[in-house]
Specification:
The structure holds 2 protein chains of 2 kinds. By secondary structure, chain A is an all-alpha fold. In chain B, about 45% of the residues are buried. Classes of the chains: A mainly alpha, B mainly alpha. Chains A and B meet through helix 2, helix 3, helix 4, helix 5 and helix 6 of A and helix 1, helix 2, helix 3 and helix 4 of B.
Chain lengths: ~230, ~110
């Protein structure tokens, strides 16, 4: 069903020294602490990371609950902030496709799409035999997902021992790691312009609509970058 | 478990899974070398960059209590450390947490 060799390869890949798993772990420790302070019990905190496994979505949920937002509002706010997962999924699934693999693997493993697992796959997939890339991906996903759940538990129980300054320190780890990782992948004109334009347009669009800023900023920046790349990279 | 919290978690996970699942469905008809794939790839990177810079410039949660000058100092120092350490990802990440926690404990 799942090729064990490639599955384990995926797990091992997620545990490298400079793996995005560090950023993932730190940020979910902060989430665990946040959920506890919000009044979640340990089962609910685990359940949340288990089912959602997307950091900005959990943050939005927590903030919406603090201000007493309705379920419809929570749904819309989370959908908007996590809609980035749509282009992210489209940009990795074709790399994993193989006719011999059953579709359910793709439908279930799309749950593992998150920034960290996405980056691990993007920087390692070329070395993997195409036929088993989906199993490799499931390995990466399982490892990062379990790290997120374990870190949530750790954060939940550490909440009482973490000072405010320490939680703030943990919260900056995630965006800083991914900022550096993004700078690291700026190798073609197309990708560099996509990343630089996105980084500027996201906050600029925030002034017009905080909820839509990430989605619209990404869409506009990505489209401009695509055309820039078509002209200069070829 | 409190009913409200469980419902909120279910709603959050559903709102999240929709984008992932639609992505998996859409990508079935998209080839790795096609132009539309390239466009989606650009949009994915841009959206991530937009999200990360928004998290740093207009943060939510605990980070929003930190003065923006402190955040800018940490961002610039991290980029500097990233280049000094020959594009190592671990040093800027760990140092950013320590620097911010330290700076913030001095700020009132």
């Amino acid at each position: 069903m799942i090729n064990l060799k490639y599955f384990i390869k995926g797990i091992v890949c997620s545990k490298k020294f400079d793996s995005p798993a560090i950023a993932l772990g730190a940020s979910f420790i902060a989430i665990g602490a946040l959920l506890k302070n919000l009044g979640f019990n340990i089962q609910e905190s685990i359940f949340s990371t288990f089912l959602t496994y997307a950091l900005p979505g959990s943050l939005v949920m927590a903030e919406s609950m603090l201000i007493g937002a309705s379920l419809v509002n929570i749904f819309l706010a989370v959908w908007l902030v996590n809609s980035r997962l749509f282009p992210m999924t489209v940009s990795i699934m074709p790399l994993l496709k193989h006719d011999s693999q059953p579709r359910w693997k793709y439908y279930i493993s799309c749950h593992f799409v998150a920034v960290s697992s996405w980056l691990i796959l993007k920087s390692n997939y070329e070395e993997i035999d195409r036929k088993y890339r989906i199993d490799f991906w499931i390995g990466i996903g399982t490892a990062t997902w379990l790290i997120a759940i374990f870190s949530t538990v750790l954060g939940f129980y550490a909440a009482d021992f973490l000072s405010k300054d320490m939680i703030i320190g943990l919260a900056i780890v995630n965006p800083i790691y991914f900022m550096c990782a993004m700078i690291g992948v700026m190798k073609t004109i197309q990708l560099s312009s996509a990343i630089i334009l996105g980084a500027f347009l996201g906050p600029i669009f925030y002034f017009f609509s905080p909820e839509w800023s990430v989605l619209l900023g990404g869409l506009v920046a990505g489209s401009i970058a695509y055309f820039i790349g078509e002209v200069y990279d070829s | 478990m409190t009913a409200n919290i469980v419902l909120a978690i279910l709603v959050t996970s559903l709102a999240t899974y929709i984008s992932r699942f639609l992505g998996a469905l859409t990508s079935e008809k998209i080839g790795e070398t096609s132009k539309i794939y390239k466009w989606f790839n650009c949009v994915a990177y841009s959206t991530l960059a937009a999200l990360i810079s928004r998290m740093l410039i207009f943060p939510s949660g605990d980070l929003s209590d930190v003065h923006y000058i402190l955040r800018i100092i940490v961002i610039l120092l991290s980029i500097l450390i990233f280049y000094i350490t020959k594009r190592n990802l671990v040093y800027p990440t760990i140092l950013s947490a320590i620097i911010l926690a330290t700076l913030n404990s001095f700020a009132v």
